[in-house]
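Record passed on underneath.
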Amino acid sequence: MHFADRLAAAIDQTGAPACVGLDPILEKIPQASLDATAREGGDDIEALGDFCIGVMHAAHDAGVTVIKPQSACFERHGSRGFAQLERTVAEAHRLGMLIVLDAKRGDIGISAEHYAAWAFDHLDVHAITLSPYLGSDTLEPFMREGRGIFVLVRTSNPGSDAVQAVRLADGRSVAEMFAGMVAELGRHRRGGRGLSDVGAVVGATKADEAAALRERMPDQVFLVPGYGAQGGTLEDVRRMIRPGARRPGDLGVLVNASRSVIYAQAEPGENWTHAVRSAAQNLITQLRDLA
């Protein structure tokens, strides 16, 4: 099935373009989760996977259909950390969730082909984030039938302004240049819903540029980080919606929340997974107002 069609159907299912980011950091994992792993004879590395699986089940119970594992959080722990990423992805498949791997790969030639094989043939994720800095040919190995890519166009970090907001001789910003590249790559890769499987990462904190980027990328799904904990608001996201869209899956946005959901603070006596589920439900409730 075309990736963008599958994503649109998953969003329609819950009524909100919600994605939960899995950014497991040992120092932030609830003590109750660490203790549960220890009781089963597991160590801190296994606790990463146990925590992510607990988060996914809670988010899934709330209605979330898309998750975004941050590869770096697992890779820093070497081969055993990578094994927990594999375990997390396998459980997401079992739950029927769509998986966007946040890896931000970007390299030339055979290196790009190796990264694509790692993501799609080995891990079997549905989509991956990519850097376009080395040119469009570095993105093409990832453009596979039934899979999706999200290309970094306008990111949410403050330091991005020094590169992405710079104006070129023709008046476009660097971000707008990359937006044109993304639109061209995805022009003939639209699915039945009119959305392309070549998407773009556009931060909620850069919403003042949303109209210009949407004009250049009318058929792209915007993967939107920066919502919630980083300061992005519902009104910021609203400025990124495709004009005329009616159904939630046609809005052209996938809004990610990580810290505000996965590290939600439990009330005294409350199970930490209940707090995660409540935070995920709150995210869905907020985003349903977009449609």
About this structure: The mean pLDDT is 96. Residues 188 and 196 are 8 Å apart (CA to CA). The chain has twelve helices and eight strands.
